[in-house]
């Protein structure tokens, strides 16, 4: 389906571009030409863009954020950092929830349930152990 | 719930995870950060439940899973000894890895529920993303299990070197790529499980040749992997929280590996290819040359330190093994009560995990503003009367500075030899993890306090009371 | 149109959710139920998501990146920083190009042309003056 | 071109802009960074042309616009004096602001070309984004013009305080909101232009009450605004490069404003409300108390410095006015040839723009590793024999440190008074921009060198040759 929608978008674009050319050459800036231009611009402005592109952009920017945010972590807290990244990577739980919650296959529900259990260990274990560690870091009493 | 609003909430939870890591830039903000992380997770879970609105039975299953897993996790988190953190993190990684495999399998068997097509007609893009996720997840799983076993001492830390292992790994990698292509073409469940199996095997083979003491780098690397696996599945599910988190965790693991390799002055590649370090070799000074060692008693040490103006404590892996942090704090308290200035110096790779020593000292109530990183304190050794090195070895070895032929040459070290007197608490004259003799033991200003770190420190505390 | 597509998505979701409920209660995991679940999940997994959400996510992450990246600029280069941000903010030129290139209205083309000229001053002026400044920063000769 | 691929290219250009700013973290990487920025811009332009495939006539117009604007820009960039940077940046901002207004107008008149609906039926969301973009753009335009005029000295720097100006501004702001709502409801071009007009007026009114010397903060703030305007239009056009860039520029301006306010120890709000600072008041020491000032000649200064071991040079706004940087470098060369250690100390708000002094010193070929920020060098004044303060005033005023009643109390200052001798090059005993008398002029260790900064420095250089 990806391919077809992509091809569709391409076709639309081609048609639209052709229409625009005609319209512009026409010199009469009538409604027809304007609409054709609109179709072209629809593609231009992202109406037809595959969500993958956006996700990829988000992924890349998040890597930049990760780079900076992790380098700013103080070395004294590197162990809690490992524990908390562990905990947050358990957000994969959303997949497990979908599988258990709405899967139309018994096997899938089973797999999801196993994933859910494992990942719950991580969520609770990860955040709580981080909490426990962080609670120990104290300043000198004055 | 509206799908747009749900996406927005997933974004919010991703942002909260960023803030969670951001909080770790300072101990005072770190607790708040961890709470952001918890809220982010709660939002992600609640959003998914509101979006998918499971049936009553499904909801029951979900609660059951959360309760079982959650209570195990909570109990482990409460009970675990701080010294066992490296193992715990490795174990947790293995769970995430396995969960990724299971989620991908669920998506394979019920693609409709994940919006990636229907059975036998799953979108090609989703299949590629999924198989990447499942392969990385499976490697993370078995790799982390091996790392756990080695770190926990249930498996020998010695590198296990199969003949032609590089060839085997390359062949397995190629097979994996071929299988992924086949999966996209055939959508066969059998091929899917083959990918899982192969990746599980690859995880084992990749990690067993790596020595026990390199496990911290491995754990970080696998942390990074689990992030990329999560991101891959995030693409499949179109879930912003998962994509952002995957990228964060992926970068975090990569950066920590980099920091450790830098702290050891080794290349990441050489660590990953394995073969370095094994059992802590107890070689002693048996290299032919007769060298004298000045040995001291707890009383000597107590006397020296009580009469010092400035004492710098250098903890290492041995302190963790001996659980000597509490005794150490007591000793420092005695010294401070006597007007001695006490500071702690932490090498970036002291112990068996980045930040390992800091957590242990924090556990023993040592204020974090008395604990300094290498670059901040290294110049102060010259003004210190005593350097109290407890269970540390490689991170003080001057051959890293002076001896070009040493395998650890170039590794930054703590200049404990610049202190007037250097006290070494360890059980023998044996070497540290790198298996290299420490020339410092035979220097004039050094006094060896041979014995278990905890016992020796406790004796010193007693001696101070006299 | 935003509203209608949003409402449409909502309606689809409602229908799909209802279908899933039926399907799950049905216990017979036939093709029909599976398809219904698929429709629900389509909404779940973002097929129906407004690009605005993605853009917003990109915007927010870019602010994080901007925050970190700017704080890491050395104070000695704050003047070049102002010049170069000036230059890159001229990427608004894409709007001007659309207006001049394909607008179906003479006025719009005119506005676009003015924008294009102004912004070109900025693009060339901004990058070149930055270049000139940066070329002056030299290390001590040894 | 495929729309997906185009979006991907826009992302690439956004990433290149991030790398451009990242390069500025160090002078050695900065040139590479600037090239990334240029490539990013080229990609964005090429992608847009490939995507929109303009007609032959359209293409001609585009080339014409680029050539006219480009040549003006290139000439300006080559000719402009480095001392005029603050004005130039303000002028450039005004162009971006006006361009944003024009782009929004084009979108208003030809919505089809921008894919935001058709004439009279533009999407509500796009209208909101657009009107935000146009309002911010227009404010940026007139605000920057005023800032330019004040910085360039074509308009008095004195704050112009209308009666009830806060009320007027609030009323205008409210009217703006009402007009935006009306625009969304009616889609009327008339309302659109009303918004433009109102915003233009608001831009003027917001900036005129702000004193000339606060203009750097204003310029940064407007820089930030132009970023947000670009981002708003980026949402309308669905353009990733524009959204990312807008966010980057927006944060950059905001952070620079913050840094400057901190360097002056003033709140951002107090700067924006205006009324502070005006013409550099030449008050002299006319406050009744008779105080003695030690005045010196170029020969005295030459003798003192040639016999010093360490000289720290503190440049300020006066150096920029007098264009004294080249003479200063010559003087430093002479000193270094004579074995004197020379360093430069830069206050974060010295001059009229962040980094202003650094650029001028770089222009005069001063190596950047001899130039230090306040926190890195402040402790060294105590070991310096001479502090050579050239055209700086407020940033050395000790009342910021000692006098709680001073308006600049709390502002971090360079501790030039800790040096053995402090030489002050300025034309009079007048105050700096903050209009506050500098008690340092009357101290024992201070010697005033009254005269133009460039002339005086040149005379000192000559005197050194004797
Ligand atoms: N932290 C990390 O992230 C990380 C990552 C990768 C690699 N590493 C490696 O790990 C090493 C860490 O250096 P390190 O100085 O902390 O440790 P080390 O060099 O491994 O030395 C630890 C010392 O503690 C002593 N010890 C063990 N148990 C003890 C006990 N119960 N009581 C007293 N002493 C005891 C041992 O000597 P005896 O046997 O004589 O008692 C040993 O020499 C470095 O080589 C580093 O490259 C660390
Ligand atoms: N850099 C920024 O980003 C920024 C931003 C906002 C505000 N500011 C403000 O700007 C001020 C900057 O401090 P500053 O110490 O650099 O400058 P300043 O306090 O304004 O003093 C400049 C001095 O230079 C002298 N001068 C002017 N022309 C001269 C010439 N041709 N030859 C010799 N001397 C000359 C003036 O004294 P005479 O008239 O006696 O010659 C004046 O006292 C601070 O108050 C700061 O808060 C800066």
TrEMBL record, chains A, C:
<feature type="domain" description="NAD(P) transhydrogenase alpha subunit C-terminal">
    <location>
        <begin position="56"/>
        <end position="139"/>
    </location>
</feature>
<keyword id="KW-1003">Cell membrane</keyword>
<feature type="transmembrane region" description="Helical">
    <location>
        <begin position="83"/>
        <end position="104"/>
    </location>
</feature>
<comment type="function">
    <text>The transhydrogenation between NADH and NADP is coupled to respiration and ATP hydrolysis and functions as a proton pump across the membrane.</text>
</comment>
<keyword id="KW-1133">Transmembrane helix</keyword>
<keyword id="KW-0812">Transmembrane</keyword>
<dbReference type="GO" id="GO:0006740">
    <property type="term" value="P:NADPH regeneration"/>
</dbReference>
<dbReference type="GO" id="GO:0008750">
    <property type="term" value="F:proton-translocating NAD(P)+ transhydrogenase activity"/>
</dbReference>
<keyword id="KW-1278">Translocase</keyword>
<keyword id="KW-0520">NAD</keyword>
<keyword id="KW-0472">Membrane</keyword>
<feature type="transmembrane region" description="Helical">
    <location>
        <begin position="52"/>
        <end position="71"/>
    </location>
</feature>
<protein>
    <recommendedName>
        <fullName>proton-translocating NAD(P)(+) transhydrogenase</fullName>
        <ecNumber>7.1.1.1</ecNumber>
    </recommendedName>
</protein>
<keyword id="KW-0997">Cell inner membrane</keyword>
<dbReference type="InterPro" id="IPR024605">
    <property type="entry name" value="NADP_transhyd_a_C"/>
</dbReference>
<dbReference type="GO" id="GO:0050661">
    <property type="term" value="F:NADP binding"/>
</dbReference>
<dbReference type="GO" id="GO:0005886">
    <property type="term" value="C:plasma membrane"/>
</dbReference>
<feature type="transmembrane region" description="Helical">
    <location>
        <begin position="110"/>
        <end position="130"/>
    </location>
</feature>
<dbReference type="Pfam" id="PF12769">
    <property type="entry name" value="PNTB_4TM"/>
</dbReference>
<keyword id="KW-0521">NADP</keyword>
Automatic annotation (TrEMBL), chains B, D:
<dbReference type="InterPro" id="IPR012136">
    <property type="entry name" value="NADH_DH_b"/>
</dbReference>
<keyword id="KW-0521">NADP</keyword>
<feature type="transmembrane region" description="Helical">
    <location>
        <begin position="89"/>
        <end position="110"/>
    </location>
</feature>
<dbReference type="GO" id="GO:0050661">
    <property type="term" value="F:NADP binding"/>
</dbReference>
<keyword id="KW-0997">Cell inner membrane</keyword>
<feature type="transmembrane region" description="Helical">
    <location>
        <begin position="35"/>
        <end position="52"/>
    </location>
</feature>
<keyword id="KW-0812">Transmembrane</keyword>
<feature type="transmembrane region" description="Helical">
    <location>
        <begin position="6"/>
        <end position="23"/>
    </location>
</feature>
<feature type="transmembrane region" description="Helical">
    <location>
        <begin position="163"/>
        <end position="184"/>
    </location>
</feature>
<keyword id="KW-0520">NAD</keyword>
<feature type="transmembrane region" description="Helical">
    <location>
        <begin position="130"/>
        <end position="151"/>
    </location>
</feature>
<feature type="transmembrane region" description="Helical">
    <location>
        <begin position="241"/>
        <end position="261"/>
    </location>
</feature>
<keyword id="KW-1133">Transmembrane helix</keyword>
<keyword id="KW-0472">Membrane</keyword>
<comment type="subunit">
    <text>Complex of an alpha and a beta chain; in Rhodospirillum, the alpha chain seems to be made of two subunits.</text>
</comment>
<dbReference type="InterPro" id="IPR034300">
    <property type="entry name" value="PNTB-like"/>
</dbReference>
<comment type="similarity">
    <text>Belongs to the PNT beta subunit family.</text>
</comment>
<dbReference type="InterPro" id="IPR029035">
    <property type="entry name" value="DHS-like_NAD/FAD-binding_dom"/>
</dbReference>
<feature type="domain" description="NADP transhydrogenase beta-like">
    <location>
        <begin position="8"/>
        <end position="462"/>
    </location>
</feature>
<feature type="transmembrane region" description="Helical">
    <location>
        <begin position="58"/>
        <end position="77"/>
    </location>
</feature>
<comment type="function">
    <text>The transhydrogenation between NADH and NADP is coupled to respiration and ATP hydrolysis and functions as a proton pump across the membrane.</text>
</comment>
<keyword id="KW-1003">Cell membrane</keyword>
């Amino acid at each position: 389906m990806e391919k077809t929608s992509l091809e569709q978008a391409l076709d639309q674009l081609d048609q639209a571009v052709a229409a625009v050319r005609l319209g512009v050459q026409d010199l009469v800036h009538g409604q027809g030409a304007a609409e054709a231009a609109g179709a072209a611009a629809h593609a231009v402005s992202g109406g037809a863009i595959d969500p993958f592109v956006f996700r990829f952009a988000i992924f890349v920017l998040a890597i930049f954020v990760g780079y900076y945010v992790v380098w700013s972590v103080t070395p004294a807290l590197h162990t809690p950092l490992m524990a908390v990244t562990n905990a947050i990577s358990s957000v994969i739980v959303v997949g497990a929830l979908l599988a258990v919650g709405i899967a139309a296959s018994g096997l899938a529900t089973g797999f999801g349930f196993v994933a859910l259990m494992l990942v719950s260990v991580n969520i609770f274990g990860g955040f709580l152990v981080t909490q426990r560690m962080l609670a120990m870091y104290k300043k000198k009493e004055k | 719930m509206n799908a747009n609003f749900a996406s927005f909430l997933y974004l919010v939870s991703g942002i909260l995870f960023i803030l969670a890591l951001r909080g770790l830039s300072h101990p005072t903000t770190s607790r708040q950060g961890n709470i952001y992380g918890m809220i982010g997770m709660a939002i992600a879970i609640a959003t998914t439940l509101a979006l998918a609105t499971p049936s009553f039975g499904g909801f029951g299953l979900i609660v059951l899973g959360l309760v079982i897993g959650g209570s195990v996790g909570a109990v482990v988190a409460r009970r675990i000894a701080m010294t066992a953190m490296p193992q715990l993190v490795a174990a947790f990684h293995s769970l995430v890895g396995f969960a990724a495999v299971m989620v991908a399998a669920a998506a394979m068997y019920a693609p409709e529920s994940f919006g990636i097509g229907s059975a036998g007609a799953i979108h090609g893009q989703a299949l590629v993303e999924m198989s990447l996720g499942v392969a990385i997840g499976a490697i993370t799983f078995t790799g982390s299990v091996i790392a756990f076993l080695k770190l926990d001492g249930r498996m020998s830390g010695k590198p296990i070197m199969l003949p032609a292992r590089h060839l085997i790994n390359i062949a397995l990698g190629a097979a994996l790529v071929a299988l992924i292509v086949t999966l996209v073409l055939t959508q066969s469940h059998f091929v899917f499980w083959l990918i899982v199996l192969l990746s599980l095997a690859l995880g084992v083979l990749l990690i067993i040749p790596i020595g026990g003491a390199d496990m911290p780098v491995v754990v970080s690397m696998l942390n990074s992997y689990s992030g990329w696996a999560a991101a891959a599945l995030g693409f499949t599910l179109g879930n912003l929280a998962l994509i952002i988190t995957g990228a964060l965790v992926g970068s975090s693991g990569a950066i920590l590996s980099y920091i450790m390799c830098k702290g050891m002055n080794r290349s990441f590649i050489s660590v990953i290819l394995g073969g370095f370090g094994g059992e802590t070799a107890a070689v002693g000074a048996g290299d032919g040359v007769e060298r004298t060692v000045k040995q001291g008693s707890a009383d000597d040490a107590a006397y020296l330190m009580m009469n010092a103006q400035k004492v710098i404590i250098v903890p290492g892996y041995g302190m963790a093994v001996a659980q000597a942090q509490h005794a150490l704090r007591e000793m420092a308290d005695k010294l401070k009560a006597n007007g001695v200035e006490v500071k702690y110096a932490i090498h970036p790779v002291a112990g068996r995990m980045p930040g390992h020593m800091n957590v242990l000292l924090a556990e023993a109530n040592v204020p974090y503003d008395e604990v300094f990183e290498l670059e901040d304190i290294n110049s102060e050794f010259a003004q210190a009367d005593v350097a109290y090195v407890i269970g540390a070895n490689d991170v003080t070895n001057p051959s890293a500075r002076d001896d070009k032929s040493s395998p650890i040459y170039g590794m930054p070290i703590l200049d404990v030899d610049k202190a007037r007197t250097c006290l070494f608490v360890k059980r023998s004259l044996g070497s540290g993890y790198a298996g290299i003799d420490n020339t410092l033991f035979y220097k004039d200003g050094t006094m060896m306090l041979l014995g278990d770190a905890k016992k020796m420190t406790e004796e010193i505390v007693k001696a101070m009371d006299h």
